[in-house]
Amino acid sequence: MAFELEALPYASNALEPHIDKETMEIHHDRHHQAYVDNLNKAIAGTDAENLSLEEINKNISKYPAAVRNNGGGHFNHKLFWTVLSANGGGEPTGELADAINQAFGSFSELKTQLQNAGATRFGSGWAWLVVKADGQLAVTSTPNQDNPLMDVAEVQGAPILGIDVWEHAYYLKYQNKRPAYLDAIFNVIDWNAVAKRYQEAK
Ligand code: MN
User: Fold this and answer.
1) What is the C-alpha separation between 24 and 197, in angstroms, rounded?
2) What is the CA(130)–ligand 1 centre distance, in A?
3) pLDDT tens by residue, 50-97
4) Omega before 17 cis (within 30°)?
5) What is the pLDDT of residue 106?
6) How confident is the model at residue 103 (pLDDT cuts 50, 70, 90)?
7) How far is CA 189 from CA 19, 93, 112, 182, in A?
8) How many CB atoms sit inside 10 A of residue 96's CB?
9) How far is the CA of 103 from the centre of ligand 1 (A)?
10) Separation of CA 102 and ligand 1 centre (Å)
11) Using CA atoms, how far apart are residues 109 and 121, in angstroms rounded to an integer?
């Protein structure tokens, strides 16, 4: 069964002024669509056609680069749209807040670590908040369209928040100022969505 691109869960201008409409449209309608189309081409006629996107990512070392790049690209963007919201921002509460305080000391320290992970990722990639196999939270980053689900990732775990630091995610509005984008995006992170993922992952 072929993978399909789902519609954005909100209007393309919903995250303005932090992420602009044109960036969202190009990012979702063209970049994400291309990952989906190229993943379908890469797995056509192979056993991966019968696997879930998660299973493909978890066993990515078995597959050629086109599956890694586009299977990662599809998974990462699917996650990305759902952890952003016009009603986002602020700080997490409840069990997720407790886990963050335990792992990082404070929410502010988590934010600093995520922003550093994104800012220091050379070239294109992602910054992540993950739940490791032992249930602990960790911040990590991956190059290109890799992610922490992949069996090739340096730090493996269940990603509960991903921040896209490819230039296509911010260049129209922020040009070369990746740190400014990494500040702005915290106004639209949906911590309720991240908390839901935390509950499922832990
Ligand atoms: Mn992207």
Assistant:
1) 23
2) 19
3) 999 999 999 999 999 999 999 999 999 999 999 999 999 999 999 999
4) yes
5) 98
6) very high
7) 11, 13, 15, 11
8) 23
9) 28
10) 31
11) 18
